[in-house]
Amino acid sequence: MIAHLISIGNELLIGDTINTNAAWLGKELLTCGVETEKVITIGDDDTLIKKALRQSLKRADLTIITGGLGPTHDDITKTALADFFNVGYKTDTQTLEYIQEVFKKRNIPFSESNYAQAQVPENCKVLFNKAGTAPGMWFEEDGHIVVSLPGVPSEMKYLMTTHVLTELRKRATGQSHYVSHYMNLAGIGESTLSDLRLKDVRSLLNNGVNMAYLPGRHGITLRISTFAPSLDSGKEKLEVVAEAIRKQALEYVYSEEKDDSLAATVGRLLSEHGKTVAVAESCSGGFLSNALTNIPGSSAYMMGGVVAYDNSIKEKILGVPQSMLNEFGAVSKPVAMEMAKSVAKLTNADFGLATTGIAGPGGGTAEKPVGLIWVGFWSADEHFAMKLQLFKDRMANKERSAIIAMDVLRRKLSGIKTYPYDVKPEFE
């Protein structure tokens, strides 16, 4: 079954309200074997609503409309639907009595506009709304389902969960189970992953399995998915692709849990090995400490950190020699290595991580441009730094330098010999 989602409201178009409904709907519909093909957002305009409906009925099996069912003059969805289906109105007594009771309990006068909320197009099935005063509406015309729901997220979710999803599951047949598997990767670019690592994996996607790249500042998530007659048969199809990905890019895969983070993975590895870490940050400005300590139980392995932004702090707290700062500058291999070693010694940690760089947008030179980052690593067995050239965006540089530092530690704890983005470390 194919679905189109129509979000209505001028507030969505101008950014006063963020459209979270469409994302939630798309995810929930998949659980019923319904694939969302299109999401459109339009203003409170009768002509636009009817035009969008006409287009949807030509292509989709299900159209879900959210918004425009309130009691004010700009809520015109119900009127547009009645005009579209060329029908009159009926009073839904259950809704009317419920609204009257709600207003009575709150000691609020019951107005004409409130009464109008109980008036619905005569060809709809009313979806009773205990979460608000606007009922949902279910229409069926020539094999096409149109569902109209309030735009308030809590009311929309209540009606979907209570009425709509239940009915859609009853009607599901055939390839009705949506199955997905997520693989989280770090330390490799999207194009490199696609063109060099996973080029051969794409040949496995001709049996109804889809693979999507979901890039972000923290790395890449691969979503492999399919529709299948059962969950088990779907998982079997996905495992073939997942295993192929592991063979080609295992060193980059840090987790296969949907919402897992690199920081959580590092935390688990530190706990498993009974090891601790400390961090010294300059360009990441606390992002590394924040990521590591966001994980519950991180006090077991996170010893502490220093945000050594000014050179005086690098010198007085971390003990970086002034002569080293003068000769090489704060953004350099020797300083990154010294920061990592010093913070580990200072806190008695097993591992020391450090970041120093030029976050931007200003401050760069020909020799040290914006985005130049050094990540330092120290353990009793290894001591090195990695030189990276990242972005011109300040926030991206702060976040990515923290992510790379964590990924270096992940690889060391996992016994992986390669490094993020295949950058070669520079030892003493």
Question: In brief, what are we looking at here?
Answer:
This protein has 428 residues and is of the alpha/beta class. 39% of the residues lie in helices and 24% in strands.
Describe the structure.
The protein has 428 residues and is α/β, with parallel strands linked by helices. The chain folds into three domains: 2-171, MoaB/Mog-like domain (Molybdenum Cofactor Biosythetic Enzyme, Chain A, 3-Layer(aba) Sandwich), CATH 3.40.980.10; 177-255, Alpha-Beta Plaits (2-Layer Sandwich), CATH 3.30.70; 262-427, CinA-like (Maf protein), CATH 3.90.950. The protein is 39% helix and 24% strand. It contains 15 helices and 18 strands. The chain has helices at 10-13, 21-30, 46-59, 77-85, 93-105, 112-116, 153-171, 190-197, 231-249, 262-273, 287-293, 311-316, 322-328, 333-347, 394-414, and strands at 2-8, 35-42, 62-66, 89-91, 119-121, 125-127, 136-141, 144-149, 177-185, 210-216, 219-228, 253-255, 277-281, 302-307, 351-357, 372-378, 383-389, 426-427. Strands 2-1-3-8-7-6 form a six-stranded mixed β-sheet, with helices on both faces. A six-stranded mixed β-sheet has the order 14-13-15-16-17-18, with helices on both faces. β13, α11 (287-293) and β14 (302-307) form a beta-alpha-beta unit. α3 crosses α4 (77-85) and α10 (262-273) runs parallel beside α15. The longest helix is centred in the last third of the chain and has 21 residues, at 394-414. The protein starts with a strand and ends with a strand. The mean pLDDT is 94.
